[in-house]
Amino acid sequence: MSSTRHPQWLTAPRLALAVTVALTLALPMAAAAQGLGVSVFATSDKLLRGTSQSDGQPVVGLDTSWRGDTGWSLAAGLAGPTWPRQYTSSELTLAASRSWQHGHDLSSQWGVVRYQYLGSQRALDRSYTELNLALGWRERASVSLGLMPDLRSYGPPPTDGPRPRGLGIATELNWRQPLAGRWNPALDLGLGHLDLQRIQGRSYRYASIALSADAGPMRIHLSVNDSDAARHGLVQRRNAGTRWAITLGWVAK
Known about the structure:
With 253 residues, this protein is mainly beta. The protein is built from 4 helices and 14 strands. The protein is globular, with a radius of gyration of 19 Å.
């Protein structure tokens, strides 16, 4: 039986370099073009749904986005650990979404995001696609649903074959509270649940509290996150539980 092989020239470092160069060359144009945005960031720990995606390592990244007058948005980003370990890899994200405003109070959005991990075959196997729906109220409260039809199982890989793949379902409730202050501070609270029952018969809950502020093009974000993913055997203890993260960013205007 023949196996699928990736072209030798399509290595992770080359792909990451090509994307980085392309995004970097877009910086001056994006800063000046209407509807386009570019940001760079560094974070002490890349967290997603309460667990570390970088094995607790600092991560640097570059994001680009475009938003049209009709509610359509496109985005692309590249992020990678500063000191890669065996099970860490760079992440390329591609996203498209459409949003609507319903009167003064309500808004809705649907979108699709592709998470493409770069590196070894093991990293490539972790790649997946997410379809998401969200309903917002006055840019304060939001409830969202994420459907991941090709999500790989969490935890150590099985010894007798590839990780099982199936439907993962994430539900989240978020509240954003603007605070009085010079640098537009805001407090964000979030609760979530990731259902992996269809993949490996387990699920876990997560929560976050974050404080953010901006001064001109600079952004700062401090968060504390907690999840019970390790208690359910889905990730190692060092990548779950209570975790702090600080993120510094610069947004081109």
